[in-house]
Amino acid sequence: MSANEKAKAKKEQLTGKVKKEAGRAVGNESKTAEGRTKESKGNLRGAKEKAKDAFRD
Questions:
Q1: pLDDT recorded at residue 45
Q2: Distance from C-alpha of 48 to C-alpha of 45, rounded to nearest angstrom
Q3: pLDDT of residue 57
Q4: What contacts 10, CB < 8 A, 6 or more positions away?
Q5: End-to-end CA distance of the chain
Q6: Which end of the chain is least crowded, N or C, by CB within 10 Å?
Q7: CB–CB of 45/33 below 8 Å?
Q8: Burial of residue 16, with CB atoms counted within 10 A of its CB: 0-12 exposed, 13-18 middle, 19 or more buried
């Protein structure tokens, strides 16, 4: 997995998790949903890179 893509995936996951929890804490459903979406995008990016690595080896 390229280091740059791995860092992007981790950043998206972390940002999403923070937004999701902050939205939950204040009761803001739209921020919670936005955080879930961003976290999922990070998870998908990480999975894509792992799949690419599996085919390279």
A1: 92
A2: 5
A3: 66
A4: 42, 46
A5: 11
A6: C
A7: no
A8: buried
Contact 49, 5 (CB under 8 A): yes
* Tokens coding 52: 């690419």
23 vs 1, which has greater pLDDT? 23
The burial class, CB within 10 Å (0-12 / 13-18 / 19+), for 4 is: exposed
User: How does pLDDT run across 4-57, given as a tens digit for each residue?
Assistant: 888 999 999 999 999 999 999 999 999 999 999 999 999 999 999 888 888 886
Q: What is this structure's pTM?
A: 0.82
Picking from 16, 9, 14, the residue whose alpha carbon sits closest to that of residue 42 is 9
| Position 1, amino acid | M
